[in-house]
Amino acid sequence: MPPATLLTALGSYNLLPAIVFLPTRRRCDQAASEAAFMRRDPNDQRRDQRRDFIRSFVEQYPEIRRHRHWETIVRSGVAAHHAGHMPAWKLLIEKLMSAGLLDAIFATATVAAGVDFPARTVVLTGAEARTGNGWRQLTASEFQQMTGRAGRRGRDNVGFIVTAPGMHQDPERIASLLRSSPDPLISQFRATYNTLLNLLDAFGNFAQVREIVEKSFAHREGARQIVALDKAKIETEQRINAKLHEAGCDLSLGAVKGFERLISARAQLLDSKPQTRAEVLHRWLDEVVQPGRVVAIGRSGKRLVLVTEKREGNVRGLREDGRSASFALERIGRVYSPVYRLQEELIEEAFAEIRLRGKELVIAEPRLRDARNEESNALKLLDQLIENIIPADIVEQRRSSCTETLWGLLSDAEDLERATRRTESMREEVWQPFAQRARVLSSFGYLDFEVEKVTDRGSWLADLHIDRPLIIGEALQSGLFTSLDFIRMSAIVAALTADEDRDYGTLELEDALVNSLAQFEEIGFRVSSEEWKFGVEPTPELNFSAAATAARWAGGSEWSALAHETRAEEGDLFRMLSRTGEALLQVAGLRKAHPEAARIAAIAADAILREPVR
Questions:
Q1: Is the pTM here over 0.85, yes or no?
Q2: pLDDT tens profile 53-103
Q3: Per-residue pLDDT tens for 591-600?
Q4: Exposed site from 9, 392, 398, 601, fewest CB < 10 Å?
Q5: Burial environment of residue 475 by CB neighbours within 10 A (0 to 12, 13 to 18, 19 or more)
Q6: Contact by Cβ (8 Å): 22, 80
Q7: 407: region left, alpha or beta (phi > 0 left; psi from -120 to 50 alpha)
Q8: Region 379-402: what's the mean pLDDT?
Q9: Between residues 235 and 283, which one has the greater pLDDT?
């Protein structure tokens, strides 16, 4: 439905002012422009009030003096509101709406959770929201935030929600959302380098940090499950002890647990016992074939391959002529004992040694009889340990009774073991992201993993509450920041703190800045390599468009010129530059640890944090 038609219809039923929710920023701006073009507020007094209100507001926020939508709002009484606008402009729209000087606002769903200006009517044009990765369904909480804007306190006895017709309207989905309960609260607490450093510095060891993390709101559901499991474990232990006492068996709870573990190990050994020579051979090949070893395809020993990778029963490697080979594990006829380094200059030497001394280097294959004997010996040992659970000095009658009691407690002991493992698994799942980051920090010297202490280097890194702290930390350590002027430092910090996938224009990068970005990318690669090694999601790539835009702004560009040249949304530019300035101020705070870098950062922060950026 055309925006002007929609507002006319709402006005005819006395349903204005209204907030019309649209899925994208562009559609909000287009709808506001179309509605303004087709309608004119007939109330001259309200138009004058809007003009006077805006003029008064501009005295405090001069950056919006020449905003392109100024006259549109004065004339029509409608406006757009979304994250692409300057914060000062959005504040003006909110105040105009709260003062009753606007008839309609065309807004994205994000406005519902971020501001408090109700309207008589809320208009829903769909049940979807646009994200950087495409479209998604509105959540129940988002929907309730949007519809909760309907009805002004003290002015309306009732608020109205209107679903506007359209191609993508989904009445069934909206009806479902109306009946839905609010979404559960989701904690934003995450495992970060700074969080870990600050917690470890405050509490002194990993055990206490782990306890704090487990009690966080983010893991409240897991904590409830762990409490329930611990309660079940206590009840099971009490039940086991009561049955042992009732049977007159002088056995400990540990003995019952040990009995269950031995019985479980025996069952697993029986299940894995090889029945055929093929099973023995496959298990042996899986154990001895590894990257760096030379194997022969077939029994002849003529076709040699240096193994480079083994995965899920398949092998990849290099032939003697340099060609690659890929084959199943079962095709291997011989395995040679040496393990060679996978370096190009050593490959020929490896094949030459195997050709020369192959017979003496072949690893002997196991025989089915030997494998079965090994399994039988292991079973005998387990049977002996099971027998010894009950002390030998107990008389035969009581021994028989206690043995029967142990077998009767096996189910309880299995329940106890499962609960223990589940508890340990849940606690490890909570701690793992922190343990992984601790390993990364330790590899760069920001904490000592063995003694569980933050190093001097880690103490100042903990004060940097910014994105990609390790890249900035390593750049500071290497003295890279001190080689920059304030413009390039502004650009680099912008590239590090900006959203990875956000486009801030296509301004050209100067050669010196390109070289500096390349140096920081090199540091980023080193950091990412360590993160990969320890299972941490690697640091996002630098945003070059943010670097070029920040350099232009730090160099003295006018705001209007910057917005025009980049063609980026003013709200996006403002947020990126504001985050850059905040990050620069944090680097500027490192006057003791890195005085020269801090001095340059302070100059850069002044260059970035000038009007209208705050």
A1: no
A2: 999 998 888 888 878 888 888 888 899 988 888 889 888 998 998 888 999
A3: 999 999 999 9
A4: 392
A5: buried
A6: no
A7: alpha
A8: 76
A9: 235
CA 603 to chain centroid, in Å, comes to 33
135-139, 175-179, 292-296, 425-429 — most confident range: 292-296
Please, which residues bridge with residue 173 across strands? none
Q: Which residue has the higher pLDDT, 132 or 321?
A: 321
Element (H, E) at 356: helix 344-361
Cβ–Cβ < 8 Å for 289, 329? yes
Residue among 305, 304, 312 at smallest CA distance from 282: 312
Backbone conformation region of residue 301, classed left if phi is above 0, alpha if psi is from -120 to 50, else beta:
left
Closest C-alpha among 484, 428, 518 to residue 597: 484
Of residues 47 and 299, more confidence is placed in: 47
β-partners of residue 137 are 128
Residues 244, 237: Cα–Cα separation, whole Å: 11
Phi, psi for residue 25 in degrees, rounded to 5: -60, -45
Q: Collapse the DSSP code of 136 into the 3-class scheme (helix H, G, I; strand E, B; otherwise coil) and give the result.
A: strand
Q: Which two tokens stand for residue 4?
A: 């002007």
3-state secondary structure string across 443-503: HCCCEECCCCEECHHHHHHCCCCCCCHHHHHHHHHHCCHHHCCHHHHHHHHHHHHCCCCCC
From 18-27, 103-112, 426-435, the region with the lowest mean pLDDT: 103-112
The pairing of strands 293-297 and 332-339 is antiparallel
- Give one DSSP letter per residue of 502-550, joined into a string: -----PPPPHHHHHHHHHHHHHHHHHHHHHHHTTPPPPPPP-HHHHHHH
Q: What is the DSSP letter of 337?
A: E
Going by C-beta distance under 8 Å and a sequence separation of 6 or more, which residues neighbour residue 234?
Answer: none
The residue type of 1 is M
pLDDT higher than 80, residue 522: yes
* Sign of the dihedral defined by the CA atoms of residues 85, 88, 89, 93, in that order: positive
How far apart (Å, rounded) are the C-alpha atoms in residues 314 and 558?
A: 62
Per-residue exposure over 436-449, b if at least 16 CB sit within 10 Å of its own CB, e if not: bbbbbbbbbebbee
524-555: burial string, b at 16+ Cβ within 10 Å, e else: beebbebbeeeebeebeebbbbbbbbbbbbbe
**C-alpha to C-alpha distance for 64 and 61, rounded to whole angstroms:** 6
Q: 């646009």: which residue's tokens?
A: 130
Q: Helices 410-443 and 253-272 meet at what angle, rounded to 10?
A: 80
Query: For residues 408 and 249, is the Cβ–Cβ distance under 8 A?
Result: no
Q: What is the DSSP letter of 329?
A: G
- The percentage of the chain sitting over the pLDDT mark of 90, rounded to a whole number, equals 33
The H or E element that residue 318 is part of is: strand 314-319
Q: What is the pLDDT of residues 393-434, one digit of tens each?
A: 665 667 788 888 888 888 999 999 999 888 888 888 888 999
Cα 444 to its chain centre, rounded Å, is: 22
